[in-house]
Amino acid sequence: MLSPSPQRLPAAAPDLAERGHSLWNDAWHRLRRNRLALAGGLVVITMILLCSIGPLFAQSYQDQALDLGATPPSAAHWLGTDTLGRDLLARILYGGRISITVGLIATFVALVIGVSYGAVAGFVGGKLDALMMRVVDIMYALPFTIFVILLMVFFGRNIFLLFFAIGAVEWLTMARIVRGQVLSVKRMEFIEAARALGLSRGRIIFRHVIPNVLGPIIVYTTLTIPAVMLLEAFLSFLGLGVQPPMSSWGVLIKYGADDMEEFWWLLVFPGAVFSLTLFSLNFLGDGLRDALDVRAAKD
Amino acid sequence: MLRFVGRRLLEAIPVMFIIITGTFFMQRFVPGGPFTAEKAVTPEVQRNLDAYYHLDDPLWKQYRDYLWDLTPKSFHPFALREGLDLKAAFGIDFRPSFKYPNRTVNEIIADKLPASLELGGWSLLLALGLGLPLGILAAVRRNTWVDYLCSSAAMTGICVPTFVLGPLLVLAFGIHLGWFSASGWNSPSDRVLPCLTLGSVYAAYIARLTRGGFLEVLNQDYIRTARAKGATESRIIFRHALRGGLLPVVSFLGPAVAGILTGSFVIETIFQIPGLGREFVNSAFNRDYTLVLGTVILYAGLIVILNLVVDVVQVWLNPKLRFE
Predict the structure, then answer these.
(1) What distance in Å separates the CA atoms of residue A255 and residue A264, rounded to the nearest whole number?
(2) Mutation test of the interface with chain B: which of A150, A155, A225, choosing the one with the most B Cβ atoms within 10 A?
(3) Would you state the pLDDT for residue A49?
(4) How many Cβ atoms sit within 10 Å of the Cβ of residue B305?
(5) Which of B23, B160, B175 lies closest to A275 in CB terms?
(6) Above 70 in pLDDT, residue A15?
(7) What is the pLDDT of residue B280?
(8) CB of A249 within 8 Å of any CB in chain B?
(9) Buried b (16+ CB within 10 A) or exposed e, A259-277
(10) pLDDT at A110 over 80
(11) Residue B245 · residue B139 · CB < 8 Å
(12) Are residues A231 and A252 in contact, defined by beta-carbon separation less than 8 angstroms?
């Protein structure tokens, strides 16, 4: 590759800066044209708002009305009540709080582990990289869901353990993607410049490399959230996740499935809300991927 | 090729070793022993129990003995025809169960695994049989209503979790329409809904991957050459594009198999299938440590072996990988 002559550098610099700026503008323009992704984003935001402020207005999620029992949807209880006479809408909103919180925190754990691991492997390279990626390969082959179940069984069904156990499972793909991106970024000239300035490795990785691979990280984070929520609901459905009196969408679906023969609404509404949220997150993630033109994250 | 398989087999040994060690010590360092939930027993009974399960040995000895019991010591695969006895076939001994002291984990596995394997096998076949044609169709008719229909069906399959889909299918086809039975594992009719539930998610993934893989291959120059030669569309798809287009699907099969195995926990619970998945979840609740360990190690072994098979198929399809 030819290096630009010193005279041409100042002229090229503003040009580059502008292009760097317009990457996000471009992406936003492309995203705005993708109706499905926008709708997905809208649903996600609505769901978060509803779950965070909705319970203030809805009936209490634990007020029981045993003589009322399970009633189908009505004007007083829009989505009906469960077998203990509790308002289903309120329970879905409260359950959503837990499900979404688990989704966000566990994804954050996965994000921190995956990005650091992948960035270090990609940036340092050589034998360390080969070793670290071999470890990831091996871990891919392990039945990790089973390990999460073991953790929950042996060490008690603690919600904080749940965050970390799920996060510790979902970081592998993130590490792979980040490593691939870092490999291509680290050969660029601005990294060489940072090295020439004598910056430390850690500073180069976290201040210069990672910001330049943000696109794929954002995309994959959006796609990790539904995967994490699914795993939480899976565990809760088996009775190994969120424990009563707390409830999550997975717990509600489990109770709905137990009573579905008589009270279909107890299964259908929580199931629909949960699926709709997963749908929206996936469409949003796909839209972001197309908008940011990320190829590495393609499955 | 043989060297590749040999290397992979050698690599599988440390993986299994780590899994066994990890699960063994995880179980040993748990707060509360396996019998704490039981009603108080006399010291004498406790001593006998400890002796029966070798809990009175020092930890290193327990670990060594357990490791030795799990090491394959013989090879009589034909013994498997008599029943899934891993002790007779390979000399692998998973010890007696904690919860059912008169049964060994080997017996429980032999008893329960066949249903799980059948469920997984049918589901995987269904996933391939449904996913591949839909994905190819979507790729060939790209950006038409056929493509949109297939792609949105795939997206639905991915986003509706099995534990929502399963009960819904039971509600619709089992209870209201009465076409298929809603639970059990005796007649062929019992197989339909569980396999459909478990297979649909993977059918959806496979359809998406097939579509992506074919789209990429169909853009290649050699496909254009084939078209220029005047090859028919079906010959182009099945003769020229198939091998390359299937690559992403083959590499997905490893995770898919692992997913189907763990997915069976939920399916077997919903449909009350007497399989190993439901047994595993129950044993986890009962803290039946030997059964939990045995099942985990068995599943891990199955996954490692199946991943090996997938890797070999992948290299066979794509010789470029041999040089990596």
Answers:
(1) 11
(2) A150
(3) 86
(4) 14
(5) B160
(6) no
(7) 86
(8) no
(9) ebeebbbbbbbbbebbbbb
(10) yes
(11) yes
(12) no
A67-99 pLDDT per residue, tens: 666 677 776 666 777 777 677 788 888 888 888
Residue B277: how many other CB atoms lie within 10 Å: 25
Question: What is the pLDDT at residue A298?
Answer: 39
Copy the structure tokens of residue A243.
């424990």
Cβ–Cβ under 8 Å, residues A27 and A292? yes
Residue A168 near chain B (CB below 8 Å):
no
| Placement of tokens 């399960």 in the chain | B53
Cα B179 to Cα B165, B171, B176, B227, B252: the distances in Å are 17, 11, 9, 46, 33
The CA distance from B140 to the nearest CA of chain A, in Å, is 19
Q: Which residues of A165-184 are buried (b: 16+ CB within 10 A; e: fewer)?
A: bbbbbbbbbbbbbbbbbbee
Alpha carbon of residue B136 to chain centroid: 25
Cβ contact A239–B285 (<8 Å): yes
The answer to whether B167 and A257 have CB atoms below 8 angstroms apart is: yes
Cα-trace Rg, chain A: 23
Contacts of B312 (CB under 8 A, 6+ apart): B1, B4, B5, B8
* Residue B63 contacts residue B75 (beta carbons within 8 Å): no
Q: Which of helix, strand or coil describes residue B284?
A: helix
The backbone torsions φ and ψ at residue A67, rounded to the nearest 5 degrees and listed phi first, read -70, -20
Dihedral sign (CA B127, A145, A294, A176) = negative
Integer angstrom CA distances of residue B13 from A85, A136, A139, B89, B172: 55, 16, 14, 19, 47
Q: How many CB atoms lie within 10 A of CB B116?
A: 26
CB pairs under 8 A between A and B: 109
Rounded Cα–Cα distance for residues B105 and B92 (Å): 11
Structure tokens at B120: 């997984």
Q: A268 to chain B: which residues are within 8 Å by CB?
A: 168
Cβ neighbourhood burial of B271 (10 Å; 0-12, 13-18, 19+): buried
Cβ distance B168 to A141 less than 8 Å, yes or no, reads no
The arithmetic mean of pLDDT across residues B183-189, rounded, is: 76
Amino acid at B267: I
Q: Specify the pLDDT at position A299.
A: 38
Contact A233, A248 (CB under 8 A): yes
Mutate to test the interface with A, among B16, B116, B163 (most CBs of A within 10 A): B163
What pLDDT score was predicted for residue A59? Answer: 60
- CB-facing half-sphere around the CA of B210: CA atoms within 13 A: 28
List CB contacts (< 8 A) between A147 and chain B. 296
Which among A229, A187, A238 has a CA at the least distance from the CA of A212?
A: A187
According to the model, what pLDDT value does residue B22 have? 82
